[in-house]
Amino acid sequence: MERGWPHERGFLFGLILHLVLQGRGDAFIINCSGFDRHGVDPAAFQAVFARKAFRPVLNYSSPTHVNVSFTLSAILEVDAHLQLMTSFLWLNVVWYNPFITWNPEACGGIRKLSIAAENLWLPDIFIEEFMDVDQTPPGLMVYVNNEGRIKYDKPMKVVSICKLDIFYFPFDQQNCTLTFESFVYTVENMVLDMEKDVQEISNTSLSLIRSHGEWMLLGIHQRAKKMVVGTNQYDQIIFHVAIRRRPSLYVINLLVPSSFLVAIDALSFYLPAESGNRAPFKITLLLGYNVFLIMMNDLLPTSGTPLISVYFALCLSLMVLSLLETVFITYLLHLATTEPPPMPEWLHSLLLVCTCPSKCCPTAPHTEQKGLALTPTQLPGLMEPGMLAGKVPCPGQAEPKEHNESTRAQQEHEAQKQHLVGVWVQFSHMMDNLLFRLYLLFLVSSILTITVLWIT
Question: N or C, which end of the chain has less CB nearby within 10 Å?
Fold first, then answer.
């Protein structure tokens, strides 16, 4: 009798517990009498708390349906170098525990209780893209209603990996994913579903988002998927979080100063090349542009090749090309005042086409360049035609025939030199015009591209 007493005592305790928890059929009813007058009796939930190590189902072969949703309340940081997005969200998880039910009429109308989360079984829902240690605060509570519906709200700072495309920086739009799934339970044990409609999640997040920094939330989209690992299948719910960068900071600090410097460099073509002031001015602008790029380097992404870097490289290349063209034109004009070289035929033909494209200008030989009708330009060391004409002797003066022939040859040589100087000067002006038009085309196309990217 003494050996059988412990066994009988355990049997009686189990019978009493069974009578307390089990009602009709497979329903488990919590004895909540007195909750409205004396508070919640912890003993009424001890049997439920003892089951927290096991998935709460009446039939263990049936899966537990877990509904997942979240509210995005802040976008804290997006790291383009590490490809990470740091956000803050409230995770909402809902499931049913059939062992926690009670009759609200017998409990003074109590239909909802808060219970410490550590006392109940919790689904192991995690975010696949999570790249940091979970810093969820301890001591969280869950809400349980009289039908066994458990709602668990969990604040999370999520550092998730995100595949960022920064080509259109600072007008880029990113699409980061948050994949919710179970780490342990397969589809035979746990099925994931949506607690709220994705449109409701998106609207709530847009209305409650608290960060107004560099990034703005555009919307949230959702799709379901099953991940296969070997012979096991895991349920997944994938949320696509669309975010967009606010470009105002970068437009004001990067694009506008760069455009101003390029525009000033384009206006420097109005300085006469023969004066010698254009080259130092362009060198000063080029040095200033390099200092600007060094100072603004911290605002640019440290990885990848965005479109704005290509724009800066084109601006720098255009300014260097303009400086080289100015140096070449200055050297060419200096050479033309001393000993102008003959112009090649192909270059002379190109000059004729560029100077009078609407006319049918014949290509004359280089020794007879009379069809250009050029206006002489004042250059150092260049003699005016009037000065040459002043040296011609008067008709009444009698001079030797040899002297007249030498004077005529000298006049022809000077006239031909004057003509060559005019041709090279016009060639320099043609190069200036072409490069100036290239500057204007580049500025107009840049402004149109920035406007389209900003609007769209």
Answer: N
